[in-house]
Input
Amino acid sequence: MRVATGGLSHESSTFTPVQTTLESYRERFLHEGDDILHTFAGTNTPIGGFIEGARAHDFELIPTLFGEPQPSAPTPRPLYDELLGRMLEGIANALPLDGVLLELHGSMAVGDLDAPDGLGDAEGHLLAAVRATVGPDVPVLAQLDIHSNVSQQMVAMADVLIGRETYPEVDMAARGRECADVLARIVRKGLRPTMALHRIPMVWGLNQVTAHPPMREAIAELHRIESEPGVVCGSIATCFFLADTPDMGASVYIVTDDDQALAQEHADRLGKWIYARRNEWQLEFLSASAALKKAQAVGRFPTVLADIQDNTGGGSPGDSTGVLRTFIDMRLEDACVLYIVDPEAVALCREAGVGSRLKLEVGGKSSPLQGTPVPMEVEVAAIADGVFQYDGPMYAGLSGDMGPSAHIVQDGIHVLLVSRREQPFDTAFSRTLGLDPRQMRYISVKSGAHFRAGFESWAGAIHVVAEPSVHSLRDLPFRRLGRDLYPLTTQA
Output
């Protein structure tokens, strides 16, 4: 078996001021050829799972191009065309092929969405281009994020789509391996996949941590369906709601063995089961001050405040100041903020040196919606180049790079300043700057849920908070939605 692999994976916010450039890809992942295999072998990533599956099923995996920037604004069309063209060239040069395994996200947008060449459904376009390259008979499989906006075009152009089943997404390699397993069944055992989509008229709220109810019950229902005769696999997409695109919204997609009607029946049944419980998937968020008062009354520490609206994992700038200002106003001690993106403040800290005291204006520089900079008089506790090794369940085995970074302290409040955006998946980076969050009493993370993979096992309490940002959920100006979506446009 000869199988090509690659992909473009990007969670595209249509509301963020953070632009996506070629350098954005280079800062995160942009690999071609054998560099893909060297980078991802043995890692908890979808391509890591493809590699594992290739070894298990003894097929040749031919790497093309893989690119993934941090979540940010839509990729410019010329850059997308260039990267896609290089990937397609790699696939074409590898022909004849027995299959294609792609790592995609499921919520990638490209260009100006109001222009004729803008793409609200970049994955649908990409899959159509791959299909045109390999022809109608070569199986094309893709691994998707749980936060996908799945389109009919995606389902029509792929033979099999497999989404992640965990949030935090700790099953990336497992789902990649599942793609390889299904491909082997198609090529060697005659499996004939038929896939059906049910689009749920709903924006899934943020009550979707899969280890907890009610989301745990939704995954259990999915697994029950997957155990039914004739079902190959199934997935729930909770949607990426920061995308103002016609395909934004939750969905279910089910794959059966040569039975389209059965696939649609299961997809429709699960989709309706989810929609009937639509109120259960929504969450109300506290302000940072209200969450801290609640935490102090309960007395379970360390307390983690997840700053959901400045989650860099959704494309936010990462420099909002609401939580930091609240920490200072409440005169907390043994408190830390992970992280504030502020290259300007980092540069001043590096110039001053470790042990120096200086005045800084911290955060609030990317947009007025992120809050105003916070005046601080700090000691520089540590500086670093930002390079580290992930040691938590997410991205285990990969290295990361936060860029030039600094650890500053003011009156018992610790802030990690970074130059590159990324949410804290574990405590590995913090420790490179001499800060162990486990020793803190109050921890603020700019993250929605992925931080739980590395924090929840030892946290005393976790509160999701909402402070003003470019992604303030109640103020997002949607205008391109292709359907009514609960609770945005209907209360039914």
